[in-house]
Amino acid sequence: MRADGTATPVVRMLTVGVEEEFLLLDQAEGGPALAAPAVLALLGGDPHVKAEAMRYQLETVTGVCTDLAQVAEELSRHRTLAARAARELGCHLVACGIPPRNMPGLSALTADDRYRALAARHGALVAGSGTCGCHVHVGISSRELGVQILTRLRPYLATLLALSANSPIAGGGDTGWASRRYRQWSRWPTAAPPLAWRSAADYDATVCQLIRRGRALDERSVYFHARLSPRYPTVELRVMDTCLSVEDTVLLAAMARALVALAIADMTRNVPIKALSDRQIVAELAAAARLGLDAPALDPYTSRALTHRDLLEILLPRLPEPEPIALLLHRLARRGTGAARQRTMWSQAGTPRRFAQLLADATLP
Q1: Contact 324, 332 (CB under 8 A)
Q2: What is the pLDDT of residues 172-194, one digit of tens each?
Q3: Helix or strand (DSSP H, E) at 11
Q4: Please, what sign has the CA dihedral across residues 169, 291, 96, 216?
Q5: Average pLDDT across the chain, whole number
Q6: Global pTM?
Q7: What is the pLDDT, as a whole number, of residue 8?
Q8: What Cα–Cα distance (Å) separates residue 70 from each residue in 123, 253, 254?
Q9: Under 8 Å CB-to-CB from 6, ≥6 apart: which residues?
């Protein structure tokens, strides 16, 4: 940010959009409620609230946003709208990465041809796919630029996961993971970090190969943790858990946009970063899913070993527009990550019903 308070050009030119996935939990018992079709019918086809793979899930989508205030306003409006409809049908809208109690399996599958085709090919994986992520889209000028950005985002995937971790409770107890969702989701054969592709043609060749080998149904089901969106002119960051609060999600959107801006600025200045192997990145992701911000990390500029919490402090001065992110990180440090807050709620709740209520209260803006 400049001294006069205006955004730097590289940040100002980047648009951002957010997709949030939510659970529907029964008010009576706190388990998954197969109410998504009824909620969507009640909303009358609102284009910002959509079906997901399972009938106990919903997805909300923002428009193309140009600033964080717009992101916050749209996220708040869509959560409130969906939560009111859910409440009328006797269930809670909950921002949580994984159902706190057992998943119903394929009996809960949404009646959609594409989901049926996925289930026919990957039945066991689809049965356990009722997890909820946060996907942030950052607008880019070309797919060639997008591929270069993906390479520079690789070292920060684990940090984004650690920031968002919001799924410690599953199967009726504390799993010991900050993001149990990541462990569940990473079983998909294409749920992997992006490779260090040299060109958009190389990227496309990898995607086509995965589809030919049967590891993905189509381009949309190539679930790289960060990818070129198959539908929009964006880089799409997908590794994150859905966030407990609107402010947590705004932080992720701000961080994603800033990291893309940093990648562009570094490329313009020919600033190198250390290459991390695919094995190193996967190991960092697994550790972040387990330990959150206290997991080990490597500074991609110096290869210095530290934690993701420390890496964020070092990263801030490098970002083109650090001030709003610094404020959001400070607030997160005070209230705790989603995983930390969920564990507190779980210890206080006593019953699954009460835990679902606490989660629903935290989800509302």
Answers
A1: no
A2: 999 999 999 999 999 999 999 99
A3: helix 9-12
A4: negative
A5: 95
A6: 0.96
A7: 58
A8: 39, 11, 12
A9: 12
